[in-house]
Amino acid sequence: MIENKQWIYAERPTGRIGMEHYILNVENLDSASLKPGEVLVKAMYISVDPYMRIQQSSNNTWEKPHPLGVVQGAGMVGEVILSKSKKIKKGDFVNCYTGWQEYAMVPEGEARLLDPKIAPISTGLGILGMPARVAYFGLTDAGKIKKEDTVVVSGAAGAVGSTVVQIAKIKGCRVVGIAGSQEKMDYLVNELGVDAVINYKENRGLEEMTAALNKAAPNGIDIYYDNVGGVITDAVFNLINHKARILICGQISQYDHGLENPELGPRFLHKMLYTRATIQGILSRDYNNRMDEMIEEMGPWVKAGKLKYKETVVEGFENLPAALSGLFEGVNTGKMVVKV
Amino acid sequence: MIENKQWIYAERPTGRIGMEHYILNVENLDSASLKPGEVLVKAMYISVDPYMRIQQSSNNTWEKPHPLGVVQGAGMVGEVILSKSKKIKKGDFVNCYTGWQEYAMVPEGEARLLDPKIAPISTGLGILGMPARVAYFGLTDAGKIKKEDTVVVSGAAGAVGSTVVQIAKIKGCRVVGIAGSQEKMDYLVNELGVDAVINYKENRGLEEMTAALNKAAPNGIDIYYDNVGGVITDAVFNLINHKARILICGQISQYDHGLENPELGPRFLHKMLYTRATIQGILSRDYNNRMDEMIEEMGPWVKAGKLKYKETVVEGFENLPAALSGLFEGVNTGKMVVKV
Q: pTM score, two decimals?
């Protein structure tokens, strides 16, 4: 018998998500019950991601809201400690979607094998995982990125944003990153090679943000990769070029309260007429079946150090709810993971 | 010498456009000054269109605002009364963009020949002109319409909207029309074959409009062809399907004041994530070079009575400013033109 600690999602938040919405549970897992074709995985890193907050809202129309009374859904990477699979053996590292728990039994088809020779396996949740997938295909597929583009990225120091800015630089674009601290801005400029940065906390009003963007993107904006929404996005609509592509990957500024009681903002759709721009929602899962294609191009970039990454590692399974909450305060640079 | 009456755009509106923003001018036109390759056209019908109000705003980012002190820009159809062109002869009917004036000298390359055997020439401003072009290519090109789609159209009884609903019906879709009077709704259902109609004046709140749409589009919304914006559009975002296409052709509810001082509305971009929908601005001029393609398919529809149209004809050149103003009160059914 294995003692398996789990965080049970117990109560819907109406504002910020936190510890009070979870209950810690311990179940006994009988490893003898592993079925043929399954593997038993011991979590090493467990993910916290902004999308979780959307799923928790009963007002989302994405899918049924995350049910109460079950393990919080999440990606993890871990080690196979027992295998009844012919494809995956004991000692292999895998990425799977088994939520906030220490152990899980997973059908082999739902576990993605990781190659620790490319990069540390925690990257399976970040720079070579779900956030990277939406960064990569968002820019290349939905965004139709070309080297002449000016690319503006909100949440630029986050897991997705920091990948987006680097891919855009590799593709030859002018890249503007928006983040919320001097430390993050320094990271973006000095380590990731971003051309211009804006601290949104010092440019909170629409006019200030518009002026800052005007300076940072003197030729207007061709791609806006949006992780944040709100006033930043309002300002972007003043500066979009003909046939600009606005990619909605996240709206983290709206998740605390805005899903239940929408915030008001200026109506802007008439501006779409002037530019014939497009706005498109993008989601990592839409590109699940193209993971090999991404690893083929991005794996070598990561291995060669051309694509850099930072991880904010929170230690301890017990800190999962606090880590998730921290995302909405922007405490992370790069991908935030919890080390079990 | 010809006495040529002209409406000069003289003052920028901050709210509703009206007579007070124009000055009536009479110039003397010397027909002897017609250059080789030009034709002299006598206007028969002159156009008033909602887009004019956008151009008048100094806040539009579409292009430079319509200059003051010159003839109000507009399309017209008229008869060639003198020709120095080899392609267009005296007595021909043409469509050209020469503004609110009775006569104009036009280079042959800027005049589109009309075929009066297909339909009355006033249709060159409507069902076979600019509004039809954005209806047709908006649905077929940007909207990628397919017969399984539920298509919702705001401003459904207007020049563009009444064309959109009919094309969508011809393509086999379920079509919901939104308009502002019983008369317009009757027209949509009884004459144009629309499947369900909503009177937005009786459903002014977000909840009411959402409920009405829910009833009219029980399988959700695949294409929203938006001419109006505001609360109608807010409600639509509650009901869009996976990969829905939202086409922004107009935002007439915002033109009186919203361009200068944007109205506030609920932030909705997070909903794009749930559905991976797209929002795209569409403009008739982007399809100028595909006019033949449109006439080839739509000309026979009009001739056969398969595509119906109504025109709201205002008599008298002197009524042009009032006619334009009336668009924003929804006084028209179908295309509004002024008969000179």
A: 0.89
